[in-house]
Design brief:
Length: 347
């Protein structure tokens, strides 16, 4: 295990930051007369500021995920959790991050917004993760490592043991984005949080939970790391409507399991149907709710589908995904519509 010292990784201005103290965080009890936050007393139930720390939602997340409440941060999508990692750990113009590639585009966009050097380490054959190359790309100013499992856009998940090994051998922060974890049988890193003090796991309500419009993401980490997230976030980042919605969704976790089961069956059908098409060159194995498919003419097929009102993601210009389309698993009817259109391509 490499030496890990959280305080030396936090930007000095964040370490010494006196966070904004909101009215709702200074007084937390119950009262009959609220005259502290300049709210309009009319317009119930949305006239009041929401709970800045979303404690009821976190209690429900803790139950569902089997993680302690003080190890949970809730953000406006995973996107907020990603951006805050840069703002907490990376000194603009000085520090760098190492990321596996190809992967989710927001890691690099947020690096650019925060003026942080982004070092890409390409995945190997069959999109394998090269632990040694990731470590070799890091230097004394590498604060974060970005990993995504199951990975977008390649679809494959990595073994938890390999991800844990990387955590143990790197003295900075390792972020594992598990946006698609509900579709994978390779297991979550959540159970390793206690053992790995430099690990941050990201999950989201946007995929299996069917709530992309709600904008709610989760970061799981040590209480110390979560403390810095809370220090830097906007005071009322997750709005009241989103908190209420999340409580309802979390109370019906079996509904999500039902969706996942259905989508995995639909994925198997879609893979078989794609495999039977002449335009299909290769279908990459998927641990997620999408498949990456190499086709005969990615740009042409993308445009053909688009003209028929069927939108897939063209990954043709992404390194290592040349000639590929990324196709989300839809309803049975949506998948049939896609396959029917593809079967008529070029005819
Ligand atoms: C879709 C996706 C997310 C979700 O981001 P939100 O901001 O929570 O909607 C996060 N990471 C990856 C890799 C994704 O593909």
């Amino acid at each position: 295990m490499k030496e890990f010292n959280l305080k030396t990784l936090i930007r000095p201005n964040i370490l010494s930051l006196e966070p904004y103290s909101s009215a709702r965080s200074e007084f937390k009890g119950t009262a009959s007369t609220w005259l502290d936050a300049n709210e309009n007393p009319f317009g119930n139930p949305y006239n009041r500021y929401p709970d800045p720390l979303q404690l009821r939602v976190k209690a429900a997340v803790a139950q569902v995920k089997g993680v302690a409440e003080d190890c949970i941060f809730l953000g406006v999508g995973s996107d907020e959790c990603i951006d805050l990692a840069y703002r907490i750990f990376c000194r603009p113009g000085i520090d760098n991050v190492v990321a596996m590639a190809p992967s989710y585009g927001m890691y690099e966009v947020c690096a650019n917004i925060n003026d942080v050097e982004y070092r890409k380490v390409m995945l190997g054959d069959d999109f394998a993760l090269d632990t040694e190359a990731m470590l070799a790309a890091a230097d004394a100013n590498t604060r974060l490592m970005w990993l995504c499992s199951p990975n977008n856009p390649t679809g494959n998940a990595f073994a938890c043991e390999q991800l844990a090994d990387l955590c143990r051998r790197f003295s900075g922060i390792v972020i594992v984005d598990e946006a698609y974890i509900d579709f994978s049988d390779k297991g979550t890193m959540l159970s390793s949080l206690a053992e790995l003090p430099n690990l941050i796991v990201l999950q989201t309500f946007s995929k299996a939970w069917g709530s992309a419009a709600v904008r709610l993401g989760m970061a799981f980490a040590s209480p110390e790391i979560i403390g810095y997230y809370n220090k830097v976030k906007y005071p009322y980042n997750v709005n009241q409507l989103a908190q209420e919605y999340a409580l309802k969704a979390l109370a019906d976790a079996p509904r999500v399991q039902g969706w996942v089961k259905q989508l995995l069956a639909n994925r198997a059908w879609l893979v078989d149907a794609l495999a039977a098409l002449p335009l299909t060159r290769h279908i990459y194995a998927s641990d997620a709710n999408f498949v990456l498919v190499e086709v005969s003419d990615a740009n042409g097929i993308y445009a053909y589908l688009r003209d028929r009102g069927i939108i897939v993601r063209n990954r043709n210009r992404i390194e290592k995904c040349l000639g590929c389309l990324r196709i989300t698993v839809g309803t049975e009817q949506e998948n049939e519509t896609l396959i029917k259109a593809l079967a008529e391509y070029g005819k």
